[in-house]
Every structure is written in C-alpha cells, then in structure tokens.
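Sample pair:
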Amino acid sequence: MRHKVAFFYILTKFILFYVLFLVFFSFLFCYFWVPMLVGYLDKDFFASMMNTNPENIS
C-alpha cells in the first residue's frame, strides 16, 4: 500500500512538472518566437501589432 502511494505521489509530481514545463514553453514560444518570426516575414504586420495606431506606421 505504501509503495502504491509513493508511486502516485511521484506520478502526480511528474505530471505537474510536465504541465508547467509545457505551459512555460508554449508561453515563451507564443510571446517571443511567433512575433519574431512574423516580424521577420512581414514587417508591416509586426509594426501594426506593436503599434495599435495605424496612422503611426511608416
């Protein structure tokens, strides 16, 4: 019984760590790599994303 409890404890710890890891990396990917890629491919779109005012885009 004790062995089973320890196993489930390790499993939940591992799942929690994995989920946090995934969330962190998806956050990094979405907020840093996607805008960089989009900005590299389409500079006007990146400028419009960074600047909400359309008049100020040169």
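The CA atoms of residues 32 and 47 lie 15 Å apart.
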